[in-house]
């Protein structure tokens, strides 16, 4: 995979306060990279530094090999971004808006405008005034605007904010398509964890200005341990039996039985202990953790390992 963004030991201080504290990670072409973190963690600040809206106190950011510090113009040329709400002229058509933006960047042809309109699925409505568009259509027009100069990287801060479920799905599908079919790197931030789980290939978790974890979404969510639910006739006793016999495992009582966080190889052992104590076992189910479960585990423990 080809690196397109390199964040190298970046620190940001504002009025003596450290907002971002020495973060480093890379983003590759063709992937959707999600930025997760509690409110005030530093997601927007990091994004603003990547797109060049804010200076860097220490460290460097390279885009397609060019430093944003020493080669700003060349570096940001590779980026298309929606950081604040895209500015649109509501009384103009979508097409006229794009024409307006096209005039501001060099070398954008009318064919290119038609191509991006088609790419974001707005062809049939592009001649209508923007004020008649739904929020989802406006977001897609914003996406089209970002794509006019053929960026390698797309940066979207909270792209699904305020959208209804259908709108969220539309934007998500477009983001994934741009990464897969156009080999673009897409960086998104969102506090909607279920959304990030569906949209991203990798996520970086930022907390109090530090990057505490960078992982593939699948590895992050599932890890090695799985939660198994054992449906039994006597859950309280079952919990006590497993805690006594296998004290290394985490056991939780539920309405129908017990939840045990374990690896698959440990399941026969758990069953053996339950059966030995004459506990009736009606079924075993695998419960997958959600990104939200894992996010809360990691941010609450404040410990994390950076897997590059
Ligand atoms: N210009 C500024 N002056 C002083 N403090 C700032 C400034 N910009 C950001 N901060 C502080 O930096 C921290 C990180 O803010 P940032 O907006 O990057 O967080 P965030 O992760 O995007 O949060 P949210 O999810 O709430 O948008 C916050 O504590 C914020 O108050």
Automatic annotation (TrEMBL):
InterPro entries: AAA+_ATPase, ABC_transporter-like_ATP-bd, ABC_transporter-like_CS, P-loop_NTPase. The keyword Transport applies. One of its GO terms (molecular function) is ATP binding. Residues 5-233 form the ABC transporter domain. Keywords: ATP-binding, Nucleotide-binding, Transport. The keyword Disulfide bond does not apply. It holds the Pfam family ABC_tran. It comes from the Bacteria. PROSITE patterns: ABC_TRANSPORTER_1, ABC_TRANSPORTER_2. Belongs to the ABC transporter superfamily. This is ABC-2 type transport system ATP-binding protein.
